[in-house]
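Table S5 (text form). Sequence records supplied for joint modeling of the two-component complex.
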Amino acid sequence: MTTKTITSPSIPVAAPGVFRGSTALGIGIAGIAVWLLGALLNPAAAASAWLISICFWTALSLGMIFFIMLHHMFDAGWSTIVRRICEHWLAVFPWLAVLFVPLLVLSILEPGVVWKWMAVDKLIPGTEIAVGDDLLYQKKSPYLNVPFFLVRLVLYFGAWVAFAHFLRKFSFAQDNDGNPAHTLANRKLSAAGLFVVGFTATFASFDWIMSLEYHWFSTIFGVWFFSSAMRAAFAALAIICLLLVRSGHLEGIFSTKHLHDLASLMFAFTVFWAYISFSQYFLIWNANIPEVTFWYNVREEGFWWPISLFLIFGHFLLPFLFLLFYTNKIRASRMIFISVWILLVQLLDMVYNILPTRKLADGSVHPFTITLWDGAAIVGIGAICVWAFARSLETARLIPIRDPRINESLRHHE
Amino acid sequence: MASLSENPSPSAAALLREVAPAKLDRPVLVENDRSFSWITNKICGIIEERTPLWWWVAFCVSGFVASFCLIGLTYLVATGTGVWGLNNPANWGWAIVNFVFWIGIGHAGTLISAILCLLRQKWRTSINRAAEAMTIFAVVCAGIFPLFHVGRVWFAWWLFPIPNSNAIWPNFKSALLWDVFAVSTYGTVSALFWYVGLIPDLATVRDRAKTKLRQVCYGIFALGWRGSNRHWRNYEMAYLLLAGLSTPLVLSVHTIVSFDFAVSLIPGWHTTIFPPYFVAGAIFSGFGMVLTLMLPLRAIYRLEDLITQYHIDCMCKICLATGSMVGYAYAMEFFIAWYGANPFESFAFVNRAFGPFAWAYWIMIACNVICPQFFWFKACRRNLVLVFILSILINVGMWFERFVIAVTSLSRDFMPTSWGYYSPTVVDIFTYVGTFGVFAVLFLLFLRFLPLMAMAEIKAVTPRADPHHHGH
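The corresponding structure-token record, covering 886 residues in total, follows.
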């Protein structure tokens, strides 16, 4: 990053005690080391743990990039200081790309361990048919094949890393020269970016999550992924901003008004997630066509049934009711609570989407489990993201001091 | 840290001292620094002046066109629904297409009044009143089609959950019944929202009235508005609550409309993206119609200072965004129709694009996906003739979208023996064209009798309303 040169040393831009980069790096490496142990002992469990984790953190980061782009599209004022936090977070994308590699390595060492369509000569669990002889796979093989999957993967991360890089570059450069042209450049970038990131995120969700059960399909799946991404991003943003207030770095800058607006957006996307999830469930349930209902049927077996219900009440109803109240939206401790809650249940939603596709040898659905490897993968990738974020905090200021709308954001009274 | 401190910490204060914003002015929403009285005179002038000749001409033409609808419906009631071109298997034809078309148009009004209000998009103030009026009139036009499709229109009240003498209840499992609730709720809340917003302006018209009759008439509907602090407080709270309540309605109505199709097993209809896809399409068509209506009005009444180029830019960009969302949905439908590897589903989509109704499909793609892409360019957004033409094409495209969905899937269903071609009858065409007359008559009456723009709200977003105006 060329942005390092613009930092004035007299300004403490890093946030010691909150996002201590070295600690995060240590935790990240430890998490990954534990997970590697899991990959040796139980590759299948480790593979799904890593996939859940990478999907969770990528979704969260994509939510941040969407938020920045929407900010520019609306020429928003209030969110200017929050946008900079997102820009710092975008530093995670190259690392996420690197952290995707273990899934590819596992897939090479043991084909089909992550995406079973990658092993065409293996039997479909519970049947006598090899994947390659499955008519549905044959029909889909022009899309679901390893070379094309890799090409798409490179395109996705290439697009995200590029947009993240330029959004950060222009915004950080403005701190230095105060040139409004940077804002206009980011606006143009955002308009194009919404298209590119919208399509790449959709197909990433098809490739990584939907194709796990390659018989199944849903046209709304990309929108579901988008809604999850936005929720996770708002929850993470609220937590980060409040921690930076606690450490004093954003004290008196990030106000209850900003918190209230973030909370309102969390509320909006809570409803949006419920709307999209309901649409998918309801239309599949109501039409009752076996070619798609089986996806939900397996999620009604065993402990997956209470999980399904918990998602309705825990991922929709509780945040919905909680965020209806103004007082909950302006109190830091309450917002920390609901943000952590939303992130945890969001993680559970990822587990709900990913884990049941891992069939047992007899073809029955994989039970709901939480293993050490799940925890290691989540903490490992998450800590690397926090480390990348903390490193970015040291390269540019905490608020975009020369953004044309910065004063609107600082004097946000509405 | 139960609540957040207002006082910056030393490090935050150091950061704040560095703040030096670059200069990038926000566009003004009322140009030429117009005063409050100028705005009042301009808007009230429209309904206080002598009725212009063009209005009478337009009114007579619209009334004549509206009579087509009346005649078509009379003929239908007298003869039976067979006069529409419906057949088996195309049991749904223009009737559902026109219903969805008109309901969709209404969505821009609710989006502008509710969602843009919650998003604090101040540019909405110049266009919200007319867009809300458009919403209500579009709902009226939409309602005609399902109402008369029941055939014996005098039994239409059976749609409501009232047990009749035979103890027959409506089928609560039917998406068409949900439509009844969704659309009637939507119509009611939209009308309420529109009316609440009108109250302060009705009082202004009352206070300027030169005749007793006028004063009494507007006075009744102004509900004794005096513009006191308490009135404004209650008004603003009511407006905010209605905005909150209307926001889910923007989504719910067209979601239910999409369910009319998506809950079925028909290939091309049963797909999970239908709800958000229909909502995006509805907002798209609604903004197309807002542009179609506002551009001529802006020219006729010389409203360039109130509906600025910035407003037109914003509307064009919303068309671009929602049109592209519709394009995204088309892409998802097509991709998953292939990826799903269901031969019926893939047939439905190949049939759409290359079958007997391919002409309709490509009109739809050209108008809905390609047309709005012109709005990427500032030069196109500034060419108002082009914007006007594109806004009409958007609605042509959106009508064809519903036609493609309804007709292609039905006319070639699972049984090739019953395949056929669907054509509307003269009655279909006349009734549909007639609804444009109904819409125009209602809109012209609105122009004559109610303030076209929310004066009170526009004043609040003028540069003069800013306490820092003139650099204070």
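Note: Chain B has one domain: 35-461.
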